[in-house]
Amino acid sequence: MLFVLSNEKFDEKRHKADFIESCQNRNEAGAYSYFEGRVRNSNEGREVEALEYEAYSELAQKEGAEIVREAIAKFKLVSATCIHRTGYLELGEISVWIAAAAPHRSESFAACRYIIDEIKKRVPIWKREHYVDSDPEWVNCANRNHSELSESEYYSRQFVLPSFGILGQNKLKAAKVLVIGAGGLGSPALLYLAGAGCGQVDACDFDSVELSNLHRQIIYTTENLEAPKASVATARIRQQNPFINSKSFSLPSDAENTKVLFKEYDVILDCTDNLDTKLFVSDCAIAAKVALISASVRKFEAQLHIWVPTQENSKAGGQCLRCLWHEKNTLAAQSCVDAGILGAVTGIIGSMQALEAIKYLVGISSPLANHICLIDLLSLQLTQIATTHNEDCPTCNINSQSLAEAIHHEQATR
Amino acid sequence: MNRAIKSVHLRYFAILREQRGLASEAVETIAPTAKDLYEELQNTHGFNLNCNNLRVAVNDRFVNWSEELKNNDTVVFLPPVSGG
After folding, report:
1. Nearest CA to CA, how far is A295 from chain B (Å)?
2. Are the beta carbons of A59 and B11 separated by less than 8 Å?
3. CA-closest candidate to residue A269, choices A209, A206, A335, A350
4. What is the distance in angstroms between the Cα of B68 and the nearest Cα belonging to chain A?
5. CB contact under 8 A, B83 and A58
6. Contact B83 A249 (CB under 8 A)
7. Do B61 and A59 touch (CB under 8 A)?
8. Does residue B43 belong to the interface with chain A, where contact is any CB pair within 8 Å?
9. Nearest CA to CA, how far is B26 from chain A (Å)?
10. Residue in chain A lying closest to B47 (CA)
11. Which residue, among B40, B47, B50, B81, would best test binding to A if mutated, counting the most A CBs under 10 Å from its CB?
C-alpha cells in the first residue's frame, strides 16, 4: 500500500516489519529511511494537550498515493509507504509515518522529506488542536488573508474614546444586529456597524441593485447591478471588517417566525422604505422584546424612533411605532421614488441609526429612548418629541393576546 | 452559463462542518459554477473563509473554481489542510 489512513493507534514494530518484508528480494535497496511525526505539547506558543485529525478519505487516499508514487519515480526508490492517523491522538503518539527504501541514503532521506512536505500541502486532512487553556481550534483555518492583521489596531481609534475602551469593544463584539433593508439607510448603517466591530451584522433585503439606487446606496458599485442587494452588502462588510461575521437572508413573511428570528438579535435596525413593513417590523420587535431603531426619510426631513425593551415597556404601556402611526397613514407616506431623495440625507440618517445602535449596545444612554426625533436637514433643526403611550395601540395593549391575534385585531378594525 | 436548477450533494469538513453544523446536505441551486455556489452558501451560513483560502473538489476530484456544476454532483469545499 502506498498510502494508508488509519484510525488505530500506531504499531511501529508491525509496520516496520511489514515494510521490510515488502522490500525482500530487492537487494538493490541499500538505504532505508523512516520519518515519524508525533504529537507535540505546544504550537506557536500555546500549550497543546491533544490532537484530532479529520480526513476527506476518498480524496486523501487518492492524493496521498499519488504523492508516494511521485516520490518513487522522482528519487528512483525501491519502495515507499506512508501511514497517516485520523481521530483523536494523545501527546507523543505517532501521527504520520513514512518509510522509503533506495539504493543510496541521499535518495531515501530526500524522499521522506518530499512526502511529508507534499502531504502537508496537498492531502485533505485537517488537524484540530486541543489546548490546555482555551477552546480547540482548526489549524490553518483562520482567514489567511487577515490572520496577519491586528484586531486591536483596527479598533485603535475607537478604544481611546473615554466612554468606550476595551469593555465597550467587547460588548460590541458580542452583539448581534439585524439590518432590515439594505438601501439608502441600510448602506451606511451596515458599513458603520461593521466598522465599529459589532460581532454579527446580518442583512435582509429582497431587492436587486438598480442603477437608480447608486447615488445614495453607497455600499454598491456599478459592478453590482442586478445582483441581490443583501448578499452583495454582507460580502462588502465582511471585507470592510474581517473580524466580524455577516450573513444575508429573506425576512419571513409571517409575524410568528419573524418574532422568533428577532429574538436572536440584540438590536433591529429598520431601514425599510414603507410604512406597512415598518409597522410589521415594529410589532415583531416588540413581541420579541428586542431593541428597535427605526428611521424614515422624506426629501430633506427624517424621523428617527427608538424603542428599547424596559420593564415599563414589557408591561402594558409601551411607546411603539404603532402608537404613532397606523396603516391608514400609508397612503400619506410617500416613498423616495415619488418624493425624491438626496444621497447625503439617507447617508446622515442611516449613520445616526448605526450610532444609536452602537450607543445602546455599549451602554451609552441616549436622550432618544422613547422619543421621536424629527430632523430637518434643510434648516438643520433637530427636534425631540416625547412619545406617549397610545391607549388604542393594539401592539402595546394586548399583552395577553398573541402577536398574531393583535395584528388580526388591527386588521379587523381598520 | 448553466442557470438551470440542479441538485447537488455537499460534504463539509473541519471548520466548515462546524460552521454549517452539518457534515453533509443536499441543496438545490442555480449557481452555474463552484465559485458561485460557495458564495451563495457563504452568504447564507456566514462562513468566515473566502474562496481564495479554499480548494474545491467535485466528485472526489480537485477542480478549478470555474468548474461548471451539473445535476447530482458531489461538491466539497476544502479548508486549508494541516495534515502531518
Report:
1. 26
2. no
3. A350
4. 20
5. no
6. no
7. yes
8. yes
9. 18
10. A245
11. B81
Are B42 and A230 contacting, i.e. CB atoms less than 8 angstroms apart? no
Residue B1 to chain A, least CA–CA distance (Å)? 16
Q: Which residues of B30-48 are buried (b: 16+ CB within 10 A; e: fewer)?
A: ebbbbbbbbbbbbbebbbb
Whose cell is 441600510? That residue is A186
pLDDT tens, chain A, 414 aa long: 899 999 999 998 999 999 999 888 888 999 999 999 999 998 877 889 999 999 999 999 999 999 999 999 999 999 999 999 999 999 999 999 999 999 999 999 999 999 999 998 889 999 999 988 888 888 876 544 455 678 888 998 988 888 888 889 999 999 999 999 999 999 999 999 999 999 999 999 999 999 999 999 999 999 999 999 999 999 999 989 989 999 898 888 899 999 999 999 999 999 998 888 998 999 999 899 999 999 999 888 898 988 888 766 554 445 777 777 766 665 555 565 667 899 999 999 999 999 999 999 999 878 787 778 889 999 998 888 877 677 777 777 654 344 545 454 444 433
Is any Cβ of chain B less than 8 angstroms from the Cβ of A123? yes
Rounded CA-CA distance A103/A82 in Å is 19
Q: By CA distance, what is A86's nearest residue in B?
A: B83
Residue A208: DSSP 8-state: B
Q: Which of B38, B41, B82 to mutate to test the interface with A (most CBs of A within 10 A)?
A: B82
Full-model pTM: 0.59
Cross-strand pairs, A246:
none
What the block records as the C-alpha cell of A98 is: 513514512
Is residue A34 within a helix (H) or strand (E), and if so which, with residue range? strand A31-38
Interchain contact, B84 vs A96, CB within 8 Å: yes
Residue of A60, A85, A75, A74 lying closest to A29 (CA atoms): A75
Instruction: Flag if A230 and B43 touch (Cβ within 8 Å).
Output: yes
**Gap from A290 CA to chain B (nearest CA, Å):** 22
Q: What does the DSSP assignment read for B26-62? A: EEEE--SBHHHHHHHHHHHH--SS-GGG-EEEESSSE
Closest Cβ opposite residue A120 in set B11, B45, B83: B83
Which residues on chain A are in Cβ contact (under 8 Å) with B9? none
User: Up-side HSE of residue A299: CA atoms within 13 Å toward CB?
Assistant: 6
As a whole number of Å, the CA-based R_g of chain A is 31
8 Å CB contact of A246 and B80 = no
CA-CA-CA-CA dihedral for A325, A327, A333, A338, to nearest 10: 160
Residue A63, number of CB atoms within 10 A of its CB? 21
Beta-carbon contacts of A66 under 8 Å, excluding residues fewer than 6 positions away, are none
